[in-house]
Amino acid sequence: MSILTSKKEQLSLEIVKALRQAQAEGQLNFTELPDFTVEVPREKEHGDFATNVAMLLSKENHKAPREIAQIITEHFVNVQDWLEKIEIAGAGFINFYLGTAWLYQVLPQVINEDERYGCSNFGGGQRVQVEFVSANPTGLLHMGNARGAALGDTLCNVLAAAGYEVTREFYINDAGNQIENFGKSLEARYLQLLGHDVVFPEEGYHGADLIETVKNIIAEVGDKYLGVEATLRREFLIQKALQEKLSNIKKDLARFGVEYDVWFSEQSLHDSGAIAQTIQELQQKGLVYEKEGALWLKTTEFGEEKDEVLLRSNGLATYFAADIAYHQNKFKRGFEKVINIWGADHHGHVARMKGAMQALGYAPEDLHVILMQLVRLLRGGEIARMSKRSGQYITLSELIDEVGRDAARFFFVMRSPDSHLDFDLDLAKTETADNPVYYVQYAHARINSILLASTEEPVASREVDFTLLKETEEIALIRKIAEFPDEIVGAAVNYEPHHLTHYAHELASLFHSFYNSCRVLTDDAALRQARLFLVDAARITLRNVLLLLGVNAPEKM
RNA sequence: GUGCCCGUAGCUCAGCUGGAUAGAGUAUUUGACUACGAAUCAAAGGGUCGCAGGUUCGAAUCCUGCCGGGCACGCCA
Fold first, then answer.
1. For residue A384, what pLDDT is reported?
2. Three-state SS sequence of A176-215
């Protein structure tokens, strides 16, 4: 548990004790303990921690909140040794001042834990599976995929740091209509490249990357599939092309710092009979019926507006049916929490997937879907709409070439998934201080050069007098460092990795302020040692948060 | 028409399980390098939190309605 959390809990216990004592003495009335909070106030003038408990008891007791706060504080006993001051303020807040001694404990802790600093066992090893990107393997990765990759990978890092056991998974959509369409497109390109005048399918994949793929295939097998029966020829081209596309996707994601534990094939669900089995299971529960030659799932029983088709009248399973089988498979593998990161254009799919999970006997809330609003690409101030069909989109690979992995990952995670992301290519291309990632990285590089310039012999932390760190900037920096483990837990439980980019920026900012007002390599040896410890703790924390974001922590820039 | 997301400083966005004077970056203006990296710091101005009601001791945050923008409503995936 972090020092911050333990202080909060300590205060909560004291508050409860005071409440019960006041109740026993007949000064306060409550049937059950109020659900109060102990928080770090936004304004540091409001103390180290504050509670709203008095306001919550106001109504039941027919007393003003400040009056209740007075009663509560009078019942605090034997706290003088660690509580410097209690104050009633504002509308009835109770503010607690703990002094600074407790804060200094965090510095040796950071140095000790080093790359583990910030990690906790909050998740208790709960098994979580995160499925993200899952791009169609028929083309290249676009900005939406890139956002999903940065978001998903960072979320996984955060969850792992918070003590969850995380599995990263990519669902390969290698079945269904778009694969057939893919096959037709490949075949047309194959024939065209070998000098045959064939019409390219209108709904086909027009991207130039497909031509490259087919050229590669021709380089390998030549024209020997010209004479092969069309179904077999398409099948061959599909397998070959999928292989290449997937390997490229893997390569691009790896360049982006994203590595998966599992690549899960949709086709395997068809081949293994898993889909048929899932449908049968739903049938046995009486949730399936036939209409107009198709098989329908009664999703209306789970709050949907209409029922959904599982098996089309041509006998083929829908994407929905395959996805139900896939998600059932996830739960069968023992994941306690299943998280999907989808584009907002899939939002209609969320409720019915949850409904289907409920139908199969799983708790719908164990499936959590993060919807990302779409990425809009700006070029020259104009919105460039991405289109797979036209092939006119910027790929992840190109983005990394242009703006670099660090900037791209930081930018994608910086915004809440709910927010539309305008990615200004021109701006991102300019490597200036406009880019917040440089600001954070600069702090790290700066610390590193201080440590390089120092000729200090290492000393044990117990020999360092941390109480010398009493400047406002020093206390603020320590406080922010102390918040890191709680920051990670907060980002993990709410699935909000974007908080970490803000945290990184704040931490860097506090360091820069400190740097400008406090000289580290001062002649005062005791102060110098204390500050070197502080700076090193800041370095470790900055590096760790950047690591979670998948961003490099450079020693110089 | 129905559903989901968004609307906060000139611009890009945080803050949303209700809490104290609504924050940051950027842009603008003004200061700070003969000491550890000026890719930095310090300071100023900039707001009907889309609008209108409601709940509450207290609302940017919750509820209802409306306005504006995006997305989705297929036996596609």
1. 63
2. CHHHHHHHHHHHHHHHHHCCCCCCCCCCCCCCHHHHHHHH
- pTM value is 0.95
pLDDT (mean) for A168-195: 95
Instruction: Measure A414 CA to B51 C1' (Å).
Output: 30
Q: Residues 152-191 of A near strand B (Cβ < 7 Å)?
A: 173, 175-178
For strands A85-89 and A93-97, give the pairing.
antiparallel
Answer for A299: CB within 7 Å of strand B.
no
Which residues neighbour A234 within 8 Å (Cβ) at sequence distance 6 or greater?
A183, A184, A186, A187
For chain A, what is the largest distance between any 2 Cα atoms, rounded to a whole number of angstroms? 97
Look at strands A85-89 and A382-384 and give their pairing. unpaired
3-state secondary structure of A227: coil
- Identify the residue whose Cα has the smallest distance to the C1' of B14: A502
Sign of CA dihedral A521, A523, A525, A527: negative
Among protein residues, the one whose C-alpha sits closest to the C1' atom of B37 is A446
- For chain A, first and last CA: distance in Å? 35
| Closest nucleotide to A557: CA versus each C1' | B39
The answer to whether residue A502 scores a pLDDT higher than 70 is yes
Is the Cβ atom of A293 within 7 Å of strand B at any atom? Answer: yes
A322 CA to B76 C1' distance (Å): 13
- Identify whether the C-beta of residue A108 lies closer than 8 Å to the C-beta of residue A469: no
Q: Are A412 and A147 in contact (CB under 8 A)?
A: yes
ipTM of the complex, rounded to two decimals: 0.95
Choose among A510, A404, A401, A499: nearest CA to A447. Answer: A510
Average pLDDT over residues A400-411: 91
In this complex, the answer to whether residue A255 has its CB under 7 A from any atom of chain B, a nucleic strand, is no
Please report the beta strands in A347-470, taking only residues with DSSP state E, as ranges in sequence order: 367-372, 375-379, 382-384, 421-424
Nucleotides of B under 7 A from a protein CB: 2-6, 12-15, 19-21, 23-27, 35-42, 56-58, 69-77
Going edge to edge, which strands form the sheet with A294-297? A288-291, A294-297, A308-311
Percent helix, strand and coil across chain A, each to the nearest 5:
55, 15, 35
| pLDDT score at A381 | 67
Least Cα distance to A369 among A387, A357, A386 occurs for A357
pLDDT digits (tens, 9 = 90+) for A325-335: 999 999 999 99
Give the CA A219 to C1' B10 distance in Å.
57
Q: How many CB atoms lie within 10 A of CB A148?
A: 26
What structural domains and CATH numbers belong to chain A? 3-99 (3.30.1360.70), 127-173+259-372 (3.40.50.620), 432-548 (1.10.730.10)
| A106/A102 Cα distance (integer angstroms) | 8
Can you state the angle between helices A396-403 and A143-161, rounded to 10 degrees? Answer: 80
